[in-house]
From TrEMBL:
<dbReference type="GO" id="GO:0016787">
    <property type="term" value="F:hydrolase activity"/>
</dbReference>
<dbReference type="InterPro" id="IPR000639">
    <property type="entry name" value="Epox_hydrolase-like"/>
</dbReference>
<dbReference type="InterPro" id="IPR029058">
    <property type="entry name" value="AB_hydrolase_fold"/>
</dbReference>
<keyword id="KW-0378">Hydrolase</keyword>
<feature type="domain" description="AB hydrolase-1">
    <location>
        <begin position="27"/>
        <end position="135"/>
    </location>
</feature>
<dbReference type="InterPro" id="IPR050266">
    <property type="entry name" value="AB_hydrolase_sf"/>
</dbReference>
<feature type="domain" description="AB hydrolase-1">
    <location>
        <begin position="215"/>
        <end position="267"/>
    </location>
</feature>
<dbReference type="GO" id="GO:0016020">
    <property type="term" value="C:membrane"/>
</dbReference>
<dbReference type="Pfam" id="PF00561">
    <property type="entry name" value="Abhydrolase_1"/>
</dbReference>
<dbReference type="InterPro" id="IPR000073">
    <property type="entry name" value="AB_hydrolase_1"/>
</dbReference>
<protein>
    <submittedName>
        <fullName>Alpha/beta fold hydrolase</fullName>
    </submittedName>
</protein>
Length: 283
């Protein structure tokens, strides 16, 4: 039996779908990444059970992904999408009566977590940024370019290659590899998902610079911050988290060897142990 339910609620004029463990303790808001076919379930369904005994874990389908409503006239810029997603998250917290939450962000969700903290610092209790975008990076890697331009060749074979690249050792996924590819391919084949994705990643080369959080904003983040990264991550390379660690005052960085972009999957137990210690302020 899953330790969460799937719910829908009105946010900022449209419906957001989200996972909710309805546990006791502080709320933890989990923000998923931005790859093709991503949503709350694909990123977090294996991770939420490790939090649900101590916290209320809430994971929304971020605007432009999953079963959250997809606007036909979405923002024309990446910055516009990020601002709309900040409004979505605040509206979700308001609707659920949550004044403040711990926030965990993966990849694009990490950048969104920092944008959220910049705009509404009073709503964020702490930050965990995992393989986070939003830090200073060099030019996009070939893996990022292939991800951002996926719909130029929206094949199952291309998606399987991307999925393999997300992890250091694809054998860690075992039999789950084919099911992950199948689930994500069904998701990204939906016309509304394709429309949002191609509008968000247009043009794809602008992604790193537009999502980057300025140094002047990073140094104003006062929340305790845990940065986690896979050493072999080729989508958001570890230098991004090193940069964030240098500029976020109250931050610490943990890098996992032989680990790619999906720390919450490849190093699930170690990641959960870190988060638990971090929330009890023993880390």
């Amino acid at each position: 039996m899953e330790s969460f339910t799937t719910e829908r609620i009105e946010t900022d004029g449209y419906t957001t779908e989200y996972l909710d463990s309805r546990g006791d303790g502080d709320a933890v808001l989990l923000l998923h990444g931005g790859g093709p076919g991503a949503n709350a379930a694909t990123n977090w369904r294996g991770f939420i059970p490790g939090l649900a005994d101590r916290h209320r874990a809430i994971a929304p389908d971020i605007l432009g992904y999953g079963n959250t409503d997809h606007p036909e006239d979405g923002p024309p810029t990446l910055i516009g999408w990020m601002r709309a997603r900040v409004r979505q998250v605040i509206s979700l917290l308001d609707a659920l009566g949550i004044e403040q939450a711990h926030v965990i962000g993966n990849s694009m969700g990490g950048a969104l977590a920092m944008w959220l903290t910049e705009a509404h610092p009073e709503r964020v209790k702490s930050l965990v940024l995992m393989g986070s975008a939003g830090g200073h990076m060099a030019a996009p890697t070939q893996e990022v370019i292939r991800m951002a331009t996926y719909y130029k060749d929206p094949s199952k074979e291309g998606l399987k290659a991307l999925t393999r690249w997300f992890v250091y050792d694809e054998s860690d996924l075992g039999a789950d590899l084919d099911s992950i590819v199948e689930d994500r391919f069904i998701e990204l084949s939906r016309p509304e998902v394709r429309r949002s994705y191609t509008r968000f990643f247009n043009p794809p080369v602008s992604l790193p610079s537009e999502m980057t959080v300025p140094q002047s904003s990073l140094r104003r983040i006062q929340q305790r911050t845990l940065l986690v990264h896979g050493r072999e991550d080729r989508f958001v390379t570890p230098d991004s988290s090193v940069y964030l660690n240098q500029h976020i005052p109250n931050s610490q960085l943990h890098i996992f060897e032989k680990c790619g972009h999906w720390v919450q999957i490849e190093r699930r137990e170690s990641m959960l142990a870190l988060v638990r210690l971090f929330y009890t302020e023993e880390l």
